[in-house]
Specification:
The protein is an all-beta fold. It has a single domain, classed as 8 Propeller (Methanol Dehydrogenase, Chain A), CATH 2.140.10.10. It has two helices and 41 strands. The strands form eleven sheets. A six-stranded antiparallel beta sheet has the order 1-2-23-22-20-19, with no helix packed on it.
């Protein structure tokens, strides 16, 4: 997925760590930030019943899998994915949810499937044939599956797949939906994005708007516009949006990681984002809202983003040095830790490969007509597009794990310098790494290089970190040292994260690149000895 404000709130922002590029703001100038901090327990989830394992999106789950037995994982079943891949980066890109022995998944045409965890039998499917860029995904609560197609939020009966309600949310054909809905206390949360796969992406007027919907009826309770008035030029500009479910603290406060502004880079008429002067709030930000949708604080990592550097991953609610904190990272390849009560920056850490363009947006944001020549006409940046921290973080309460893609492409002030075929080739050949960061200090504990981009996010269970790589391998790493404990080829290449439940590991191989590869949802189990059809290694 390649998805995701004109002046600062007057008097409402303070610079963090002395840098004008990192802003922590309260909702009103001169007033204390209200709302309570998350009640982070530091305990792993009992099972994978939430898209991020728990409402704090820690992706930390208790299981039977440890560093001593992870090598005993074997295939126990596999379910084919059969949609066309012509419209997207594969067929499947999300994390399963497992409730009462049933695995719920959604493919990149918005089709929802329920599979028996024990038998691998498909119990039902509900087809929408509604393509988008993903990652998609579902939430399950109270016997209902909450999902979305490319224009509407939907609710399905978890036992039968029958649709209970549908609510169209897009405001025009320049918008879509491609996220996992969030659910908390009877409310479903779904955001639009400024991308419609049937029309295009980042076209004028495409807005990211978060909708809070009544879970029983789908009726809107409130909405929050992530891009306000599109910075004065809605005929050209677009931006914002969510890729993933929000995070929720014990008091029901909502934490978002938002997408980038557009046009990306700029256009020939408006180079370097000059159609959207200023920081372009609230793009590339961590945002905290009250349960009623009131802005409590925000922190913008990349003001006036030029490079599609979404801060798109769900914020992780955890603790550091005895205080509740929020940790996030996105396509800029930078991890941040914020005070959960105030939004103040505690530390900031670039991970993976970088080429020094993190502050280009600040240069152009503050440019004047006499400031010509601020930037070179051609430059190569890393990360970009599918680079950086592309997929979700994990935290075991003391260490944050980030899967990083190292990817660079040359661009000009108005767009990519390379043809589309070269861009795809760069994604196919990019390498990556898994990084472990001490939450108290913001320093790297270990950094393990990988031969392919780990688009499979990070999942932690006991002393094991799991991911998948684009070249189609499932990896298990030692959470303490980063040593590779286990690696096995999947049935195809993959950009899908991993869920863990009991002694099962569930993931997807959804990017078949040859006739001998097969797109599949795959279940691994301790002690299983099954085989994948036509398995091709990396």
């Amino acid at each position: 997925a390649l998805v995701v404000a004109a002046a600062l709130i007057a008097g409402g922002c303070s610079s963090s760590s002395g840098s004008s590029s990192t802003l922590a703001c309260s909702s009103k100038p001169g007033t204390a930030v209200t709302g309570t901090a998350p009640a982070a327990t530091g305990r792993a989830a009992a099972g994978w019943t939430q898209p991020g394992a728990d409402l704090a999106n820690t992706r930390d789950v208790a299981s039977a899998i440890t560093s001593t037995d992870v090598s005993k994982l074997g295939v126990t079943w596999a379910v084919p994915l059969t949609i066309s891949t012509a419209h997207s980066a594969g067929t499947y890109a999300t994390t399963p949810v497992i409730v009462n022995g049933v695995v719920y998944v959604q493919d990149l045409e918005s089709n929802v499937m329920a599979i028996s965890l024990a038998a691998g039998k498909v119990l039902w499917t509900h087809d929408y044939n509604s393509p988008n860029g993903g990652p998609d995904g579902v939430s399950v609560a109270g016997g209902v599956v909450y999902a979305a197609n490319n224009h509407a939020a939907v609710a399905l009966d978890a036992a039968t797949g029958a649709q209970l309600w549908s609510r169209t949310l897009i405001g025009n054909d320049h918008e879509g939906i491609d996220m996992t809905p969030g659910y908390d206390h009877g409310t479903v949360y779904v955001s639009t994005v400024p991308v419609n796969p049937l029309v295009g992406g980042y076209l004028g007027g495409g807005e990211g708007i978060l909708w809070a919907l009544n879970a029983r009826t789908g009726a809107p309770e409130w909405s929050w516009d992530q891009v306000q008035d599109l910075w004065g030029n809605p005929g050209v500009n677009s931006g914002g949006g969510l890729w993933h479910q929000p995070s929720f603290d014990a008091q029901g406060n909502i934490y978002l990681g938002t997408g980038n502004p557009g046009p990306v880079f700029g256009t020939k008429k408006y180079p370097l984002g000059s159609s959207r002067p200023g920081p372009d709030l609230y793009t590339d930000s961590v945002v905290k809202l009250s349960p009623a949708g009131k802005l409590l604080w925000y922190y913008q990592l990349t003001p006036h983003d030029l490079y599609d550097w979404d801060l798109q991953n769900p914020p992780v609610l955890t603790t550091a040095n005895g205080r509740p904190v929020v940790i996030d990272g996105g396509k800029a390849g930078i991890l941040i830790e914020l005070d959960a009560q105030t939004g103040k920056l505690l530390w900031k850490l670039p991970v993976g490969a970088h080429q020094g363009h993190e502050n280009d947006g600040l240069l152009t944001e503050h440019a004047t007509p006499a400031s010509g020549g601020l930037l070179p006409a051609r430059y190569c940046l890393e990360p970009v597009v599918d680079g950086g921290i592309e997929t979700e973080l994990a935290s075991d309460g003391s260490t944050t794990f980030a899967a990083v893609s190292d990817l660079a492409m040359p661009v000009t002030p108005a767009g990519f310098a390379e043809p589309l075929t070269a861009q795809f080739q760069a994604v196919y050949t990019a390498t990556g790494e898994m990084v472990a960061v001490n939450q108290d200090t913001g320093t790297v504990d270990w950094d393990t290089l990988l031969p392919s981009s780990p688009y499979g996010a990070a999942t932690v269970t006991n002393d094991v970190v799991l991911t998948t790589t684009f070249h189609g391998d499932l990896y298990a790493l030692d959470a303490t040292t980063g040593a590779i404990l286990f690696k096995t080829p999947m049935s195809a290449w993959s950009n899908a994260p991993v869920a863990v439940d009991g002694d099962y590991v569930i993931t997807g191989a959804g990017v078949a690149i040859s006739k001998t590869q097969r797109d599949m949802i795959i279940a691994y189990k301790l002690g299983a000895t099954g085989k994948l059809p036509d398995t091709v290694g990396s």
